[in-house]
Amino acid sequence: MPENNKKLLKGRLNQPISELAEAFNASVSFDQRLALYDIQGSQAHLQMLMEQNIISQEEHAIIKQGLENIQKEIENGNFEWQQHLEDVHMNIEAKLIENIGEVGGKLHTARSRNDQVATDLRLYVREHTTYLLQHIRQCQHNLLDLAEQYHSTIMPGFTHLQIAQPVTFGHHLLAWFHMLQRDYERLSDNQKRTNKSPLGSAALAGSTYNINPQRTAELLGFDGICGNSLDAVSDRDFAIELLNNLSLMMNHLSRICEELILWNSDAFSLVDLPDEFCTGSSIMPQKKNPDIFELIRGKSARVFAASNSLIMLMKSQPLAYNKDNQEDKEPIFDSLDTCLDSLRLFAQILPNLKPKKENMQTMAAKGYSTATDVADYIVKKGIPFRKAYEIVGEIVRLAIEKEKQLHQLTLPQLQSIHSLIEEDIYQHITLEGCVNARKHLGGTAPEQVKKSVQKLRQTIST
Ligand code: ARG
Question: How far is the CA of 389 from the centre of ligand 1 (A)?
Fold first, then answer.
């Protein structure tokens, strides 16, 4: 181990750390992901130190160049990360001092790894939240395109996984759109709380130097500072919120994937999933397995676990920073990777999704799915709904007995159950009649789906 590296953290310790403890303590294997954010934070801190006359312009210039050189090394993949230097922060600082000499040691004036790591993590989360938001928007654009294309395609709507009422495929796609819209809103709101600067909090109590925390916040594009040094270095609630929000988002994606898996099965046969996102079986040549869909569904579990892990990590921690918090990074990184990949895949899948329109229509007609509309028809003739409900029960029994769908019953057959039923009933109980009638805002009618698509396009483009 080079002498100056050993010295960086030696302080009052007489004995070197044990080998096992060193490995256990180190986080560099995973927190090196923060490297560029760490340098970004250091450059802002450095600038502020110079502006406040805490370091000279010459020192600033040398350290700035030193950090830029290290950044290049990292970007080119030439930086050698060392476990004995514990984490990303110490690795970069040690290298800086090795390259530019003692002056490099001035960078850490008025700073601690505690406010440094909190800053790095907020920068990382902020940027990745922006990526998430962009990918959600891409999925939403693709959903709107599909909803427009299939605004009048009739499919079965389900409750209890039984055919309930006909809906339009476009309407179902818009349901997915709205789920993602709430995820989008939650994440952007969350980003506001992430976007505060902890820099200047130092270890926990702030700094004795004449620092300007608002200036570093401004240089890093933060929307203000955290406001309390103890809270700033210790809480990770912005990240807990993120993982909770991502859990909800993955819950949505898992439900959507589950629907697609069901619809793609032989039993439903309502969609054809794109081959590019399916795999074959190693033994059964006829198989087309929806692996990617099952994996998005399955990987949601990692995100739920990560969100649990982070809140458990924070629970009961006394103020201020505790080393426990080093354990925050892997669940955050893993969840962000999983969610970004899942969204990327979902966005690519959507334009290639092929509904089997005829099967959708045939299945929608099964299961007496227009029964509610028969009841509504009778109600409009002045009969109370509960009575109409009974009458339709009888009509359905008759249809079962005759082995017919409702619209296949003859007028005399229908009139044998209730005399108020007239010829015009048939307009109301076709699949088209059923969906067309639900034309209010939020309803399934093709004309409403088209209107909603227009409106939602505007919502997401502003
Ligand atoms: N690697 C540490 C973390 O991830 C950095 C902060 C360490 N601070 C300390 N005082 N030990 O949290």
Answer: 67
CB 140 within 8 A of CB 177: yes
Query: Is residue 178 among the annotated active site residues?
Result: no
CA distance 183 to 135: 12
Rounded to whole angstroms, the Cα distance separating 337 from 136 reads 14
Stretch 305-312: mean pLDDT = 98
pLDDT tens-digit readout, 170-206: 999 999 999 999 999 999 999 999 999 999 999 999 9
Q: What's the predicted TM-score (pTM) here?
A: 0.95
Encoded tokens for 296: 């998005």
Residue 160 bears catalytic tag: yes
Question: Which is the catalytic residue, given 229, 234, 281, 461?
Answer: 281
pLDDT, one tens digit per residue, over 250-262 is: 999 999 999 999 9
Q: Among 117, 124, 327, which residue has the most ligand 1 atoms within 8 Å of its CB, making it the best to mutate? A: 117
Level-2 CATH architecture, domain 114-204+228-362: Up-down Bundle (1.20)
Six token digits for residue 17: 């750390």
Question: Ligand 1: which residues within 6 Å by Cβ?
Answer: 27, 31, 87, 113-114, 117, 323, 325-326
| Side-chain-side CA neighbours of residue 356 (13 Å) | 17
What is the CATH code for 3-109?
1.10.275.10
Q: Domain 364-461: which topology? A: Ribonucleotide Reductase Protein R1; domain 1 (1.10.40)
Alpha carbon separation from 161 to 263, 367, 377 (Å, rounded): 11, 12, 26
- Smallest Cα–Cα separation from 239: which of 194, 186, 272? 194
- Residue 165 dihedral angles phi and psi, to the nearest 5°: -150, 150
Cα gap 106→12, rounded to integer Å: 20
